[in-house]
Each structure stands twice: as structure tokens, then as C-alpha cells.
Amino acid sequence: MYQGVYGSSKKHDADLDQVIKRAFQSGLDKIIITAGTHNETIQALELCSKYENLYTTCGYHPTRCSEFNESNENEILNQIFELCEKNSEKIVAIGEFGLDYERTQFCNIEQQKRYFEFQLKHLISLNKPLFLHNRAASQDLYDILYKYRDQITKGGVIHSFDGTLDEALQFIQLGYFIGLNGCSMKTQTNLDVIKQLPLDKILVETDAPWCGIKPSHTSYSHIKTQFTSETVKKEKWASGKMVKDRNEPCTIIQICEVIHSIRGNQESFEDLCEKIYFNTKQLFFSNQ
């Protein structure tokens, strides 16, 4: 989408550089580009080389695990190791990997479980935090993480969390952060879970260009910062404008606003943001 292409249709010029510039101008300090294959990490690293404060991940998304088989699994593993060793400063996490039982048309459950565990047990030695995907698979994900709990020393985050409070607390007790974005905040049930999470275990994200907060989401009424005057339809894009229904990193302030509001303003907005920023540095940038 940041190349101006939607589906197979070209709607406007590439504006990724403008999106990144807008993000840093809005106050972001660092951005992590999540990758889901070896090639996506290579592409992300090319972008990271242009910006000091861009970082990425390395691993295979559950919907892409069909790319693994017994004849190539070790070759793929070696590619991941090689990338991480050559780019240790820019690759700050292993992933995005995990389990997705809502999109098994891309990769069946047994294949997902096999190659999530295959990646996990081998890549633990890189001593990096885990960027974890979970869709309708909390118990199986937990069971595999629990199996390797003694070897996992850097923890990780359950990204784009939309599960129950019990599921969240189960992961927290195992040492993981809970990552929240617009897809985590669609319903009142989602918000009731979020407001009970300990602040020192919350991370925020956008998952852009996806997972923006939409007017149909229950969380929308808690937003204070709007970008409507800066937003146009993709067919009417102009340089410097945001695109309607295309999420961007700069909207991360809205995630913080929702959390602050549903927590009943227990702390100042600045204190809440500072704590979440500290959580992020603690997980991904503890050496900086």
C-alpha cells in the first residue's frame, strides 16, 4: 500500500518515505518493521539501512510456513541465522512467528505447529526476544512456549492480542508482554480485557498498514487525536496526505489514548506513554 498499489491496482505514487517522515515528526523514536519470511527481512533491512531508527525481525509467519519442508528446513534455518548474525543491530526480534488457526487455508495446523516449534527451538540460541503471532491458538501457543520456558531468556510479545483476560494473564505469567493495536480494540469485551492488564506488561503497535481504529470499533469514541483533515481517498492522493483506511505508524497515539481513557485516567497521559515506552525499550532495546 505504501507503494501506491492496492490489490493489483496502482492508485498513486509510492509514499513510504513520507509515511516514515510523518511518523518521526509525530514523536516516534524507533519503528520495528515486522517481517514474515526471509525475503521480507531482506527487504526490510534495505529500508533500515536508509534510516537510523528503523529495525526489523526475522522469522516465518504461520501463514507462510508452507514454504518449509523436510528437504529445505535446515537451509531456511541457516538463512535466518546468517541474516541475524550479519545484521544483529538491526534485527531486534525473532518472528513474526506463531500460530494462526483462523487462516489454515494457507498452512494447516500440524504444519504450523511443527515449524513454529522448529524455528523456536533452534533460534532461541540467538538470544533475541520473540515477536509472536496468535490467532485462535492460545493454548497450543502457550504449551509450546511453556515447553521451552527455561531456554527462552529474552521473553517476547504476543502481538495484536485480542483474546481473553485469562489467556493474557497466562502469557504474562510466562514472562510475555501483550501487544495492543486497533484490532485489539474492536469490541467492549476487548476493552474490558485491556483495562485489567497490568501497565508494565503492555506494549502498543499499529501493525500498519492494517489494524487502524475504525469508526465501527467500540474504541473509536475514546480517541482524541484525529487525522481526518489530513486524510483523502486513495484515488485522490496528493503528496503529504494520508490515505483513508490505510493505517500509519503516526496513529499509535490513538492506541495510547484508548488505553488511557478506559483505565479511567489512573495516571497522566504522559506517564502512561512513558511507561509503555520503557516497556518497549526493556524488551527490544535493553542494550541501548
UniProtKB/TrEMBL annotation:
UniProt name for this protein: Deoxyribonuclease TATDN1
A Gene Ontology molecular function term of the record: 3'-5'-DNA exonuclease activity
Transmembrane spans: none
Gene Ontology CC: cytosol
Gene3D superfamilies: Metal-dependent hydrolases
Family listed: Belongs to the metallo-dependent hydrolases superfamily. TatD-type hydrolase family.
Residues engaged in binding a divalent metal cation 2: 133, 159
Keyword match Phosphoprotein: no
UniProt keyword Nuclease present: yes
Binding residues annotated for a divalent metal cation 1, in chain numbering: 96, 207
Highest classification ranks of the organism: Eukaryota, Metazoa, Spiralia, Gnathifera, Rotifera
Source organism per UniProt: Rotaria sordida
SUPFAM superfamilies: Metallo-dependent hydrolases
PROSITE patterns: TATD_3 (PS01091)
Keywords tagged on the record: Hydrolase, Metal-binding, Nuclease
InterPro entries hit by this protein: DNase_TatD-rel_CS, Metal_Hydrolase, TatD-like, TatD-type_Hydrolase
The protein's role, per its UniProt record: Deoxyribonuclease which catalyzes (in vitro) the decatenation of kinetoplast DNA, which are circular DNA catenated to each other, producing linear DNA molecules. Plays an important role in chromosomal segregation and cell cycle progression during eye development probably via its DNA decatenation activity.
